[in-house]
Specification:
Structural class: mainly alpha
Helix content: 55-70%
Largest sheet: none
Order of helices and strands: HHHHHH
Distance between the termini: 103 Å
Number of domains: 2
Number of strands: 0
Number of helices: 6
Shape: globular
């Protein structure tokens, strides 16, 4: 029996009128490619959406951390604290506790033991932020950290001494510093100077103070 609708040398059904259930190989490829491209576009849009959400979430998290730093961890003297309560409260040592080295001469296990270290390192971040945003509020925060560092270099001890903190009187500190405090102290002020945020009398004061501190700590 012969195949119905089969032309000589042709494929079965080749003479059949095309309908919804039949289409050429080229049409199939076009349709398949179109579906693939649409799928890729949808996937790309979804990925871009997720990336945008992640970037926005990261920015939001950084802003929240930045806000918490200034709400709770930067004290009235512009010095960064080690730890505080959720409401920002903490126990600041008294002048007598500092002079008597309580609980120890390095202020360890107190909320104020790393002011010079934390200030210097956080000042680096604030310089970057202030230069990026150009915001006067960010510049003011950077300057506040600088003033805290200058205070720590003026609280007594031998020439070039950098304190860790100040007591409740705002001027007494513990008797021992260390190079792990003084190194970040120098670095933070160097970044501030290099960042172009210090001018005039402030710049001269920073340079003069660094020339006193650096030789004393053997950082040249």
């Amino acid at each position: 029996m012969s195949d119905r609708g089969n032309s000589a040398g042709g494929e079965p059904g080749a003479n059949r009128a095309p309908g919804p259930e039949t289409f050429s190989r080229r049409a199939a490829l076009k349709r398949g490619n179109g579906s693939a491209l649409a799928s890729m576009a949808a996937h790309g849009a979804a990925e871009n959406g997720r990336a945008g959400y992640a970037a926005e979430s990261a920015r939001g998290a950084m802003e929240r951390a930045h806000g918490e730093m200034w709400r709770r961890f930067v004290d009235p003297y512009g010095i960064v604290l080690d730890y505080v309560e959720l409401d920002g409260s903490y126990d600041r040592p008294t002048p007598d506790e500092c002079r008597l080295a309580k609980p120890n001469a390095l202020a360890w296990r107190t909320p104020v033991s790393n002011g010079a270290m934390f200030n210097g390192l956080y000042l680096d971040a604030m310089v970057h932020r202030a230069r990026r945003t150009g915001d006067e509020a960010d510049k003011a925060k950077a300057l506040r950290l600088v003033e805290g560092l200058l205070l720590l270099a003026s609280v007594g001890g031998p020439k070039g001494f950098v304190g860790r903190c100040v007591a409740t009187d705002g001027k007494t500190t513990y008797p021992l510093g260390s190079n792990d405090q003084t190194g970040p102290w120098l670095y933070g002020l160097w970044r501030y100077l290099r960042g172009g945020l210090a001018e005039g009398e402030l710049r001269r004061r920073l340079e003069k103070t660094q020339r006193v501190v650096a030789p004393a700590s053997h950082h040249r």
